[in-house]
Amino acid sequence: MTLIVHISDLHVSNSTFDEEVFMNAVTEINELQPDMIVLTGDLTENGFYVEFEQAAKYLEMFEAPLFAVPGNHDARNLGYQTFEELIGEKSWKLTMDGNFSVMGLDSSSPDEDKGHVGTPQHMWLEHQLDECVVNENFSIVALHHHVVSIPQTGRERNVLSDAGDVLKTLTTHEVDLVLSGHKHVPNIWKINDTIIVNAGSLCSIKLRGKNKNSYNVYNITDEDIEIFLHQVNGEKFLFGKYPRNVI
Q1: How far apart are alpha carbons 33 and 53 in whole angstroms?
Q2: pLDDT digits (tens, 9 = 90+) for 196-208
Q3: Does pTM surpass 0.90?
């Protein structure tokens, strides 16, 4: 079994970040001993250098390997440059055990809230997914902006501008999981054989309605994908269970 924790939207700053909630989340997640943690953007609120310095120190508290992509807030105030300096590459691919691939995409644009993958990165993604199909790899794609609108999030403004083309690539390659954040509302869509999962905010005070700070946990076996929603310091429940794709 592979255990993955999906966190998103920390919004580290002096105004929107709840340190106590974050510390509780760190304790909970470290106790799970996941194989990896995927962070789908908005590490910071304003993209300021000092916020990235703080975020980098906070992320060191996680004991599992952590892989992050930037969000729209991270791309503000030259944050798109700082991300690469202090956090890591903005798009990446990793493979575990030769049959499990995770790809991170940068959907942010400097000083803009809207998301965009763009042609060069889209071509790179298609090439990586072609390899996944040939090698029959379990595939995960992580990005900040959602590719499908999320319920109970108000007027739609920030879905990927090239969502249609990206969604076609994801579904025609039968990507197993697509992970995003941005809207601070947990949600699952299943389109064809692709499961699209949105994470809530791990530790920001910027919450919609009665939503609570939360993170997603994925138990992946040879037969099933179990998705659990964990509220920080609160309820944990099965969010969805799906059979594995069989190629």
Answers
A1: 25
A2: 999 999 999 999 9
A3: yes
User: Looking at this protein, which amino acid is placed at residue 185?
Assistant: V
Q: In what order do the strands lie in the sheet with 66-69?
A: 66-69, 36-40, 2-7, 214-220, 224-231, 236-243
The rounded distance, in Å, linking the Cα atoms of 148 and 146 is 6
Element (H, E) at 148: none
Give percent of the chain with pLDDT exceeding 90: 92
Q: Judging by DSSP bridges, how do beta strands 100-104 and 36-40 pair with one another? A: unpaired
Q: 91-121: per-residue pLDDT in tens? A: 999 998 878 999 999 999 999 999 999 999 9
Kindly tell me if the per-residue pLDDT of 137 is higher than 60.
Answer: yes
Segments making up each domain of the chain, as ranges: 2-243
Is beta strand 92-96 parallel, antiparallel or unpaired with respect to 100-104? antiparallel
Contact in structure between 153 and 185 (CB atoms under 8 Å): yes
CATH fourth-level superfamily of 2-243: Metallo-dependent phosphatases (3.60.21.10)
For the record, the structure tokens of 198 come out as 């949105």
